[in-house]
Amino acid sequence: xxxxxxxxxxxxxxxxxxxxxxxxxxxxxxxxxxxxxxxxxxxxxxxxxxxxxxxxxxxxxxxxxxxxxxxxxxxxxxxxxxxxxxxxxxxxxxxxxxxxxxxxxxxxxxxxxxxxxxxxxxxxxxxxxxxxxxxxxxxxxxxxxxxxxxxxxxxxxxxxxxxxxxxxxxxxxxxxxxxxxxxxxxxxxxxxxxxxxxxxxxxxxxxxxxxxxxxxxxxxxxxxxxxxxxxxxxxxxxxxxxxxxxxxxxxxxxxxxxxxxxxxxxxxxxxxxxxxxxxxxxxxxxxxxxxxxxxxxxxxxxxxxxxxxxxxxxxxxxxxxxxxxxxxxxxxxxxxxxxxxxxxxxxxxxxxxxxxxxxxxxxxxxxxxxxxxxxxxxxxxxxxxxxxxxxxxxxxxxxxxxxxxxxxxxxxxxxxxxxxxxxxxxxxxxxxxxxxxxxxxxxxxxxxxxxxxxxxxxxxxxxxxxxxxxxxxxxxxxxxxxxxxxxxxxxxxxxxxxxxxxxxxxxxxxxxxxxxxxxxxxxxxxxxxxxxxxx
Length: 535
Hints:
It is built from 14 helices and 19 strands. It is α/β, with parallel strands linked by helices. Helix 8 (242-252) packs across helix 9. Residues 491-535 have low confidence and may be disordered.
């Protein structure tokens, strides 16, 4: 693959975030289109790429992004259960297709979905329609159609993992008997990288998949073997409709309903390769395609070592606000509620910051774990992300990271952390944690919850949870300061009760329990169509 100028859309997502550094390693000039460039602040390769701000519905931004580009990677798709996502996806694809044609782009590479002939779910139909729009653009296009992607942090892997680990006996929908051809993330990246260098006469869809064809139940039990768990008896029940199954997945795994619905819908069909024409244009990797069990083994090793490069958690949450917290002077004229707590501490600022940056996940939120847990389950019941997403790294946070039901909107390491809530609340909410050195020694801890209510329901929500603030926020501030002043007591902190048996050593198991309770919530920024790869 000769050095080229490449545009990657969906660079903040699961697959795009892994593709970009590999393109850079091959010597390519890479540009990314991002609705929220700040999400790229802490990725290791951020200083090596050109960033164009905008989304795929912004014709001017897309035109700027494709200017002087040779190859465009289209790695975005919506993962929503409702709304006009299919129309939005088609419109975005047309915008990119027209701009690429006008700019003289020599190739488009799109990651689509493996699918059978005949009637399809709405999400699969949308993926197919986007592929057709790009193929009809007049620009040579390769559509790589993949099924279940297995890798550390992929939504499909996490769903298999948690269903298997939580349930000793598995009542399951009929689709557990459907045939599926999973593919390892490393093999998906292999095909994506090589597709950019294909000759212009190659313009068509190609099925891609791993060497194994399995039933979904076999995939779960193969995971159990690799994870050192007993194999699970599985009973296929006809009463499990796709809707009911997605609710079940939402409750027993960290995968939110908005993401579970399209995954479950795609499992209603036998999704195996119908042709192997890809072998004629892109040979398999020199070491061969990765078997399913080896892909699981590799994913588990990554999880245990804390080396999860990207995660499904990076995907945007449907319905979560994406605009940043206005600066304080801009609040005039708006209804805003705040809860501010300050504490002086004898601890060194560095020690206090370490506690702040390590909050959430396995460690919990340092106050009233039961209230946080109940609030997390309540959020899950209404289709929110709940509290069990956890965090990718136990000790370090980066801009854009998911943190239970929050997302890191901004981090100034050593001094301040701003989280935006992605739980379902009638308004917008943030939580800010700050550390300042104190004159004469020690430090000061400042904690501020900010809530912008939406209508009467938002105001009622805030006043309904107000009585809990004294317990939740006050206890949280006290305990964080205590932990910094007594680091030896950290192991005795009330931790969330495990609701499943996560893989030993896995740093970011969505199994932690303390769910932020009666606390205002705050979504984070993320782009329109979700970066592809959640399947």
